[in-house]
Amino acid sequence: MAGGRRPLRCLSPACLLLAVAVVLAMPGLAAARTRHYTFNVTMATVTRLCVTKSIPTVNGQFPGPRLVVREGDRLVVNVHNNINNNVTFHWHGVRQLRSAWADGPSYITQCPIRPGQSYTYRFQIIGQRGTLWWHAHFSWLRATLYGPLVILPPAGVPYPFPKPYREVPLMLGEWFNADPEAVIKQALRSGGGPNVSDAYTFNGLPGPTYNCSATDTFKLKVKPGKTYMLRLINAALNDELFFGVANHTLTVVQADASYVKPFSAATVVISPGQTMDVLLTAASNPASPAFAMAIAPYTNTVGTFDNTTATAVLEYAPQRAGSLRGIPTPSLPAYNDTGAVTNFTSKFRSLASAAYPARVPRAVDRRFFFAVGLGTDPCKGRPNGTTCQGPNGTARFAASMNNVSFAMPRTTSLLTAHYQRRYAGVLAANFPATPPRPFNYTGVPPNNTFVSHGTRVVPLRFNASVEVVLQDTSILAAESHPLHLHGYDFFVVGTGFGNYDAGKDTARYNLVDPVQRNTISVPTGGWVAIRFVADNPGAWIMHCHFDVHLSWGLAMAWLVNDGPLPNQKLPPPPSDLPKC
Ligand SMILES: [Cu+2]
């Protein structure tokens, strides 16, 4: 024991009873339990925008089932794949401490679950509370395979803000009339950009701004004066979104399952992969019986994008479908309003309280500088008489970090290769720490925009303190990229526009109360610096959460080695781990 004190003796029945009572009252211990779920992946018929089609679902539901657990709970999810496609599931934002086998990205921590096969994901929620979500992590299947993962605080532990009257998950999605798998296959064949979505959705519903959709409108019924917590999740494939509610101010209290210092905003910005809990207080005397909630894209892409707006309804009194067009709607920023985005994202701070301290790494063992952006592949290798549909019709779209376009292994997963120490032919541990050919990242792009391809990773020793500066490039236009790190939450210690300058930018880092997230957008024509401690052994992918950029290779992976102690080692793989 610490301080050389003698251990306390507790042998009498009264003392033992008291000890049990004390233990049960401790947050996180009393109610920790195992929650069992079954995911039957099946095709189901769904109609949106007057288009009826068969889509992959979990248990026939779209969006998928809501998982509600408490911090400290263990989850056991039995997945049965009954569709004619490979599938895996990722528990987005769950740290997966020493449970990397349950993380889910295909070919990274597991081989896909083949049609007719099953796999059971087993993991525990440790030190996280708020909103996360789950989604498929194979090709573009997450277009319809997604759902909320609500993590309540341990029993008896309050929120660090007044308890809301109701809590409502609000999943922001993207609907394709075509089969999303066909969309990405066609794009990868042609080398061009994929067709864009046909609508944005609130909990799977497009709402009255779209054809045939007035009755497919999400409605949130509210009572005057009551406070509601919206658990926002951006499940869109390829679009960052503005969100606002007419005549109502939002108060942000949580991001990516960590509490933040509350701040108010008329419009929020949320990137694919991110979650945000916002409080909304219903008016005591509303000026209208209903108000619109709206989402619309934020982008600086030079390509095409879904430039539509979806609405849902905040309803004080019942409204007929036909009357929804006249209700007040929020005015969202212009689609390319980077200033509005910067203004919003600059307000995030960790709560950094005694109960929820921000343990920001102050010293750094390993520094990395990753140039993040698009690039090209040559047309050669295409069949005679065909041309590429990428930039200028003379190349194919690609994407990279430090000019390496990530190639998924196909014969095994990175994690299996790492566990077996059989790396040859699977991966190379030589992912570059800095760009191989430095250039003016946010200036005139270089003439040669070709990328290299490889399954290249960075090995890290256990408990290494890591800093990564993610620098956007202007190759084929500057564009923000929502970078998602698996297995960790990181602190966002700095950000800026233009090229990162270690000499002057490092001094301005926030090492006191930086926001902690699992997904951060590298700003358009700018950079962001993140820090984390590599305390979770495994193979962890870090990738752009625009599925199109991930398909083009905007990813890399970290191999975090075991520590010396028994509880610092990756356990053996589960016996039902799928084989490639
Ligand atoms: Cu991207």
Automatic annotation (TrEMBL):
<dbReference type="InterPro" id="IPR002355">
    <property type="entry name" value="Cu_oxidase_Cu_BS"/>
</dbReference>
<dbReference type="Pfam" id="PF07731">
    <property type="entry name" value="Cu-oxidase_2"/>
</dbReference>
<dbReference type="GO" id="GO:0048046">
    <property type="term" value="C:apoplast"/>
</dbReference>
<dbReference type="InterPro" id="IPR008972">
    <property type="entry name" value="Cupredoxin"/>
</dbReference>
<keyword id="KW-0964">Secreted</keyword>
<keyword id="KW-0677">Repeat</keyword>
<keyword id="KW-0479">Metal-binding</keyword>
<dbReference type="InterPro" id="IPR017761">
    <property type="entry name" value="Laccase"/>
</dbReference>
<feature type="domain" description="Plastocyanin-like">
    <location>
        <begin position="41"/>
        <end position="154"/>
    </location>
</feature>
<feature type="domain" description="Plastocyanin-like">
    <location>
        <begin position="431"/>
        <end position="562"/>
    </location>
</feature>
<dbReference type="InterPro" id="IPR033138">
    <property type="entry name" value="Cu_oxidase_CS"/>
</dbReference>
<dbReference type="Pfam" id="PF07732">
    <property type="entry name" value="Cu-oxidase_3"/>
</dbReference>
<dbReference type="InterPro" id="IPR034289">
    <property type="entry name" value="CuRO_3_LCC"/>
</dbReference>
<dbReference type="GO" id="GO:0052716">
    <property type="term" value="F:hydroquinone:oxygen oxidoreductase activity"/>
</dbReference>
<dbReference type="InterPro" id="IPR034288">
    <property type="entry name" value="CuRO_1_LCC"/>
</dbReference>
<feature type="domain" description="Plastocyanin-like">
    <location>
        <begin position="167"/>
        <end position="317"/>
    </location>
</feature>
<keyword id="KW-0560">Oxidoreductase</keyword>
<feature type="signal peptide">
    <location>
        <begin position="1"/>
        <end position="25"/>
    </location>
</feature>
<dbReference type="InterPro" id="IPR045087">
    <property type="entry name" value="Cu-oxidase_fam"/>
</dbReference>
<comment type="similarity">
    <text>Belongs to the multicopper oxidase family.</text>
</comment>
<comment type="function">
    <text>Lignin degradation and detoxification of lignin-derived products.</text>
</comment>
<keyword id="KW-0439">Lignin degradation</keyword>
<keyword id="KW-0052">Apoplast</keyword>
<dbReference type="InterPro" id="IPR011707">
    <property type="entry name" value="Cu-oxidase-like_N"/>
</dbReference>
<dbReference type="GO" id="GO:0005507">
    <property type="term" value="F:copper ion binding"/>
</dbReference>
<protein>
    <recommendedName>
        <fullName>Laccase</fullName>
        <ecNumber>1.10.3.2</ecNumber>
    </recommendedName>
</protein>
<dbReference type="InterPro" id="IPR001117">
    <property type="entry name" value="Cu-oxidase_2nd"/>
</dbReference>
<dbReference type="InterPro" id="IPR034285">
    <property type="entry name" value="CuRO_2_LCC"/>
</dbReference>
<dbReference type="GO" id="GO:0046274">
    <property type="term" value="P:lignin catabolic process"/>
</dbReference>
<dbReference type="Pfam" id="PF00394">
    <property type="entry name" value="Cu-oxidase"/>
</dbReference>
<dbReference type="InterPro" id="IPR011706">
    <property type="entry name" value="Cu-oxidase_C"/>
</dbReference>
<keyword id="KW-0186">Copper</keyword>
<keyword id="KW-0732">Signal</keyword>
